[in-house]
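Q: Protein A?
A:
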Amino acid sequence: MSGLVGTGTGAAGKARRGRMLPAALAGFILLGWPVAAQDARWRQLALAARQFYNEGRYEQALPAAQESLRIAEATFGAQSRQAATSLNDLALVLVELDRWAEAEPYTAAPWR
């Protein structure tokens, strides 16, 4: 006898397993949706920060870089490549704004 309740080998068991798979897949999709949405938002902000930076619009790049870092750390973790990218972007913007003291912790953070 199987250790799983309600998963027999007959036609009824197969029907139950057949209904469980779509429900399980739907659960995985729904649970993964917030991460996908946050990934898209992170990419949008990181791109905006880089675009503003490349155009020399550093004051506008700053909030986008700060928010992309916040999202990257919350969604992917402080040690993720997304967080490292956002840290770098933020440090570059702060340096261009001559805010060296604020930029320094971001340049050292990945190696601490």
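Q: Protein B?
A:
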Amino acid sequence: MPTQKKTTRPTPAISSHSLLTDSMTASFRRDVSNLSVTLGCLPTTGAYLLPPLLKAFGNAHPEIEVILREESSPKLTLMLRESEVDLAIMDEI
């Protein structure tokens, strides 16, 4: 029998603070030995929208390190596929 190649789909866009927090926490829980989550986003999102959300997440989960990667949407898509980021906030591509 031929083997099927497993494909992964990017996570749908995040539209609220609680969904972002839930997504980041879920990403962390996949590997409990790694207390970090890598979040990809567009530069504008990282500069203007994320600071209050990341502060709230850090207060709620001080044990989890958040690593932020700012890139373009096409690059973030590739990073998701290659597991270089756990989740991404980006424009549709």
